[in-house]
Amino acid sequence: MSKYGNRRVKLDGYLFDSQAEARRYGELVLLQRAGEIHYLRVHPSYLLQAGFKVGGKPYQPITYIADFEYLEGCKTIVEDVKGRGVVTPVFRIKEKLFVKAFPEKVFRIIWV
């Protein structure tokens, strides 16, 4: 069980944080097979801010790991699957940093 009560699911060699995320993966695989989307990536990582040092103290980089990325037409879509009411303040900050750092990508939250 995860901290939100979800059951982790292993599918096609990937470990998903919830059954909803695994279901969405299945939907995206079908869309890719049908030619509706292309280049599906699972759990892609994005650097939001590089690590740095101030006064000799190191600060770790800030990264965001999405659930999925794929090409839909000529747009790159980045998705995060979320249950109702399960959006943390940290996620909201990372969402803002992502949108600022990658304005060419479309950020979608898939509510389940």
Describe it for me?
The protein is α+β, with helices and mostly antiparallel strands and 112 residues long. It has a domain at 37-111. Helix content is 25%, strand content 41%. The protein has 2 helices and 10 strands; from the N terminus they run E-E-H-E-E-E-E-E-E-E-H-E. It has helices at residues 19-33, 89-101; strands at 9-11, 14-16, 38-42, 45-49, 52-54, 57-59, 62-65, 68-72, 75-82, 105-111. Strands 3-8-9-10 form a 4-stranded mixed sheet, with helices on both faces. A hairpin with a 2-residue loop joins strand 8 and strand 9 (75-82). The longest helix has 15 residues, at 19-33. The chain is globular, with a radius of gyration of 16 Å. The two termini are 18 Å apart. 12% of the residues are buried.
Question: Summary?
Answer:
By secondary structure, the protein is of the alpha+beta class. Helices cover 25% and strands 41% of the residues. The longest helix is centred in the N-terminal third of the chain and has 15 residues.
